[in-house]
């Protein structure tokens, strides 16, 4: 029995399709010889340089405040007689509590974090997360587009074969040409983005491994989790600074010993008049300015703590709203997945029925294959939005800055 031309062409295309898939599934030895970059390797790129810069920073040692706050030497002449010059030496001692407060404030300021560097490092890490996500999504999209190209090539070959028929619908060939153009543009965009990311990272033709990449179902099971955002480091540092200043003011209010002095009065003829004297001075702090300063600091502490509470409450409210919105979109994604799976199963049954007919037209079968692949692209577009929203939620929660090895995508 001689097979129809259309069936012969279809068998040829099946052979070429199998050949193409063998090249995709079993790459050359040169490709396998390339270094494989997984998530751990990817997130370590650039970390060595940052760690080196951090190691170069000099360590700051603790400093202790002196027991004597002030040394003072005074001299005075009496009746402009140099031989009768008067000298006074005075020292103002500190207290243990004041020294501890001063030491704590000094060390706190010396160890002030470099917030700009921390923010820059955090932004770099967030960029790395989005880059890894984009590379993963592009890898999936390239796989889908490669399979779509096979189907489009099959359609073009079949339609070109049928173009000699008198009743041929030329709009099908025109539509195919438009589909091919759309495919080529989408593929070019992917390769452009991939090349840009590789250039930014200093990589040349890398081979990425996305094994263990977190799935949307795993994210859906993890949401909603407990709100974990910490305090704003700048606000936390400012609060600690004010607390140290307040402790210093309290210590000064308890400093009763003012100074001790040794006084020498120059030579004179009155033997009853002493030449050396020792003096002590005490004080009972009752300054209105000091009390006002302490009250201002107390109010500032209360204000900063209130600001922290409001910020945490607001962030928690936004987090819960974003997670709730994400879960709604995820339910739509699951519905789309189930609907496409049901459609694919029904179309598979139709495809089996068509194959039983002798001399069947392969175009409906190709249409079924193309429909399934384009459904995958639609799901990929939706999953892209879900993944990006997931990272934004984690970023607002400050989690990207602490998960330095890509844990949130594994």
Any overview of this molecule?
It is a single chain. With 410 residues, the protein is of the alpha+beta class. It has a single domain (5-409), classed as Outer membrane efflux proteins (OEP), CATH 1.20.1600. Helices cover 65% and strands 11% of the residues. It contains 11 helices and 6 strands. The protein has helices at 5-25, 29-32, 39-44, 47-56, 96-110, 115-162, 170-201, 216-222, 233-253, 288-355, 363-396; strands spanning 36-37, 68-78, 81-93, 207-208, 257-265, 276-282. The protein has a 4-stranded antiparallel beta sheet with strand order 2-3-5-6, with no helix packed on it. Strand 2 (68-78) and strand 3 (81-93) form a beta hairpin. Helix 1 (5-25) runs antiparallel to helix 6. The protein starts with a helix and ends in a 14-residue tail after the last helix. Residues 287-314 form a coiled coil.
